[in-house]
Amino acid sequence: MKEIIRFENIDVVVQRRMFQRTMNLLIKPNGQVKVTAGKTVFKKHILHFLNSQRDWLLKNVKLIEDEKNKFPNIKYRDGETVLFIARPIQLRFCYGEGQRVKCRITSDCIEVQLNPHHTQGEITKAVKSFYKKSGIEILSKVMNEQSERMQLYPKKVSFRAQKTRWGSCSSEGNISLNWKLILCPPEVIEYVVIHELCHLKHQNHSQTFWSLVEKYSPNYKIHEVWLKKNHYQIEKYNF
């Protein structure tokens, strides 16, 4: 169960660690504020620590909120512009007699086939399912291509919609990828797959690891910047 402390109208997640002697403050990319502290540190001492960091904390929480507000929430409405592999494209509703909402990609839109009785909830669910299916298909293809190219093969590949991670690789050789990458450019998708495949050889972020990444993704730093700049835009899809 998470321990939450309220400070200046901000929910702060407290993570306690057995042998930690100092307190650390972190603001995650999704805006979550987190403090790590020792197991026996009292709440009043955590609040005192937060108060000592008050100006920095409030400033950076506001910066994140301002960045989030640059992008509108996606409503999944007829004519709305959305991203598909980083390309702006419209949702276009096509009415018929079908019992289920179906989606397909065309040259100039995501076509949503529905009947007049379908609710907005059903439409939203169908479009999100379309994105998930498309993401898994494209990521699977890229994974197969890059595995062959690099001669690195994971034991298992899974797909999830994670909040703060684009991918992960376990010490057992299992790779998990975030299917929300379907919103990203092809070269960014390739970079994330390459990044996780490199972890099959190096379970760290050492210089050796980054050298291997650079061998297969020479512009990886540019792709990292794209992911950081567009993180909040992607979150507005509320997958």
Description:
The protein folds into 2 domains: 66 residues, no CATH class; 155 residues, Metalloproteases ("zincins"), catalytic domain (Zincin-like), CATH 3.30.2010. It has 6 helices and 11 strands. Helix 3 crosses helix 4 and helix 4 crosses helix 5. Helices cover 40% and strands 25% of the residues. It is globular. The protein has a 4-stranded mixed β-sheet with strand order 1-2-4-3, covered by helices on one side. Strand 10 and strand 11 form a beta hairpin. It is α/β, with parallel strands linked by helices. The model has no long low-confidence stretch (mean pLDDT 95). The longest helix has 31 residues.
Summarize the structure.
The protein is α/β, with parallel strands linked by helices and 239 residues long. It has helices at residues 43-52, 54-68, 120-150, 186-198, 207-216, 220-235, and strands spanning 3-7, 10-17, 24-27, 33-38, 81-84, 87-95, 102-105, 109-114, 156-160, 167-169, 174-178.
Throw out a few tags for this protein.
4-stranded mixed sheet; single chain; 2 domains; 239 residues; alpha/beta; 6 helices
Radius of gyration, whole Å: 21 Å
Q: Please tally the helical runs, counting DSSP H or I stretches of 4 or more residues.
A: 6
Q: Might you state the CATH topology name of the largest domain? A: Zincin-like
Summed over residues and divided by their number, the pLDDT gives a mean of 95
Report strand %: 15-25%
Helix content: 25-40%
Count of spatially separate domains? 2
**Which stretches are low in confidence, meaning pLDDT under 50 for 5 or more residues running?**
none
Order of helices and strands: EEEEHHEEEEHEEEHHH
Query: Mind summarizing the main beta sheet?
Result: 4 strands, mixed
Name the CATH architecture of the largest domain.
2-Layer Sandwich
Structural class designation: alpha/beta
CATH superfamily of the largest domain: Metalloproteases ("zincins"), catalytic domain
List the strand order in the largest sheet. 1-2-4-3
The coarse overall form would be: globular
Q: Tell me the name of the CATH class of the largest domain.
A: Alpha Beta
> What's the β-strand tally?
11
Q: What distance lies between the first and last C-alpha atoms, to the nearest angstrom?
A: 24 Å
